[in-house]
Design goal:
Arp2/3 complex 21 kDa subunit ARPC3; 2 strands; 4% strand
Length: 184
């Protein structure tokens, strides 16, 4: 990886940590709060592309694992990574990679609505399909109950998907994906 790519990955890891400073919205019926950090996951994929986006989220998870307070509410440490939020957190590099992969594929004809669709499929649905069952297993509830509870995230996740798509299109000219397309 080039130095510029490492810097981008580190900046996005830091950006996602900053999004963790936004207070979460706790839900009474599900142990995982609504956070702004998935916005960073979607933006990383749309802006950085598959490799750098996944790497930025791996960096982020390593920072959380060593105890830095990068998760919402200033949390960090291994306990968080085996708690109810674990499946969601570990889905982030996968989601960022998939969003980046799809964004790169569509880049020459990219439109806001296409990025929005990519964010919904990989940043909302995929994250929920990984996170909710893991949360259900950890909390000893049924997977169907976990998936049903994850529906409560949809309104906020759709707003984050829209924001990520719009911001990524506004930053398209300076995206590493754009640079990669011109250098190919």
């Amino acid at each position: 990886m080039k130095t510029k790519e490492l810097v981008y990955a580190a900046l996005f890891a830091a950006f996602i940590a900053v999004l963790g400073l936004i207070p979460p919205l706790p839900l009474a019926f599900i142990p995982v709060p609504i956070t702004a950090q998935t916005l960073g996951v979607m933006l990383a994929g749309c802006f950085l592309g598959k490799r750098m986006a996944a790497f930025s989220l791996i960096i982020f998870i390593i920072l959380a694992a060593i105890g830095l307070p990068v998760l919402v509410g200033g949390r960090g440490g291994l306990a968080v990574l085996v708690g109810p939020s674990a499946g969601y957190i570990f889905s982030w590099p996968i989601a960022a990679f998939c969003i980046g992969w799809a964004s790169e594929k569509l880049w020459p004809q990219v439109k806001t609505w296409k990025l929005l669709l990519i964010n919904i499929v990989f940043g909302v649905i995929l994250v929920s399909l990984i996170g909710a069952p893991v949360m259900a297993l950890i909390t000893n509830t049924s997977i169907w109950a976990g998936l049903l509870g994850a529906v409560s995230y949809l309104p906020g996740d759709l707003i984050k998907a829209i924001i990520a798509a719009i911001v990524a299109m506004q930053l398209k000219a300076i995206s590493p994906i754009e640079e990669k397309m011109h250098n190919s």
